[in-house]
Amino acid sequence: MIFSHDHPHAASPVPRSCPAEAAHPARSAASGGPARSGRRRRPGALLALLAVLLLAMWPVPAQADPPRSVTLTDTQAVLRTGALTEQLEATDFRRPVDLVVLVLDVTDHDLSPSSDVALNDAVLLHARERQPELLSADGDHFADGTVILALDPTARLLGTYAGEDVKLSDGQFSTVQDAMRDDAREQEWEAALIAGAERYAQLLDRPWWLSPAGMITIGVTALVLGAAGIGVLEGRSRARQRVDLALPRYRDILASRAGTDAAARTLPMDSPYAPAVLEQHERFTAQVDELAELHEQLPAAEERGWSWGLAKNDQNLSLQFSRLVTKADDLDDRILRTNDLLHRIGDWREAWEAEVAPLRDSLDALDKVLDPQDGTGIDTAPSEAEQEVGAELVDLSERARAEIGTTTSQLEEDRITPDDALGRLDTLTAELSATVARLRDARITTVSEDEEEAEMMREAAAEPSDSRHHSIRELRHRREHGTADPAQTFWNLSPLLWYTQWHHTAGASVHEHRNPSVSSSTTSTSGFSPGVSGGFSGAGSSSRF
Which residue, 60, 141, 157, 333, has most beta carbons within 10 Å? Predict the structure, then answer.
């Protein structure tokens, strides 16, 4: 996608200053004559100082360019690409760039997650094998104009890379990663990537008066006021941007609301999945009502003055509105999709695939479950108990694949009801979850040296996996069973995929417990392994979160 945006900034005329005596003759007379020279203010000097301070506060040059293109490669299927692409396309850089997002698993390239340059190497290998357009013609650097944000959710690594013409300094690469880190730790992958893109855009071609050195040159006062001004103006820009993106989606929600309400009313009430959807519809109704109240507080686009978005209240309002629109839009889709599936109408096949996808993700992760690598140096060989459970998982996975294929065919041919088809998926999910729970317990017994370590590993198991599916089966399970402690009653929508994430997290916890001085570092690491680089010297670095 190619954009061309021009944002000229018209300068407001500044009235010429006049001496205080001319402007206020009465004040001069009352004082008994002109003010003493030592107290006289110099308007010209004041205006010069004000101009310098305004330069320090001005956040961007006159031109602001969205990315020429945005490319998302998500090998781990953890991103919701539609909304993320919109946000990234709206990011203003100071020159055209090709923005690339890579979500990788370093172990897919036979790299150890414990290596500080594992993500650097994985990005390079991925570019060589799958996206050679990310590299320069000679293959020694990243392609000109290319900005790459990379992430490994499992190994907890994030990185930033760029072509020679748009690269940052090592310290600035690290600053971008710092901007991503908090959201990444909360598994808010989209938010982390958006934060990284925005920070990169702020730093690329930053005018000297916005750099720390420039601020010091201007002076402490200019530094403080400039930072405050930049924050205010950037907050204004983000607030307006959020509203501009959310408003069309809000109008779509209102336009389709009658259909959504009808879908909720016509759900087959004898279906065990209907009650969970009706609860979602109640939430949807409340959210739409709240959105209407928030929308009333938003000025129309043509009435939105230049200053709208500067105030903290405006920024909070835009954030509330944007987030609530996303939630309501998701619920809207979920209600319509579920109604289609339970009645086998409309896009019911797409809804069915969304229910099957978590199981398929699990089955695709079987090899990693059988031969996991936590990358921490405590990859203890599987015990006999683990091997026995692993063999059961192989048999169960083969049966699950066959069952999914058979059930899908029968549903297509109308030889099974949607409720029965979903019930079969529930059964397979429960069986896989129970088997994975036994594998987890066996692993804890194998690795832990005492009860403290065992408890650490169990607590790691209690962390939920990142789910993007919004499955009606998950909603039903949550409604009927609540949030039972998975250490006691384990159930996960994609249990084998969950196990691969838990294995690394639990192993890292034990490793840090045994080696307290070797905790995960957030220091940014540049460079590539000698065996991988082959003379490559592209710009970029990675760090842990």
Answer: 157
Per-residue pLDDT tens over the stretch 283-302:
999 999 999 999 999 888 77
d(C-alpha 356, C-alpha 151), whole Å: 26
Q: Whole-prediction pTM value?
A: 0.59
What residue type is 116 in one-letter code? Answer: D
Which residue is associated with the tokens 């500080």? 116
Pair 34, 28: CB distance under 8 Å: yes
Q: pLDDT tens across 515-545, in order?
A: 764 444 567 788 898 888 888 989 999 998 8
CA–CA gap between residue 328 and residue 351 (Å, rounded): 18
| 446/382 Cα distance (integer angstroms) | 7
Q: What is the DSSP letter of 158?
A: E
HEC readout, 462-479:
CCCCCCCCCCHHHHHHHH
Task: Tell the burial category of 160 from Cβ atoms under 10 Å away from its Cβ (0-12, 13-18, 19+).
Answer: buried
Q: Are the C-beta atoms of residues 162 and 135 closer than 8 Å to each other?
A: no
Residue 18's alpha-carbon distances to 40, 306, 425, in angstroms, are: 13, 28, 81
- Cα distance between residue 421 and residue 412, in whole Å: 11
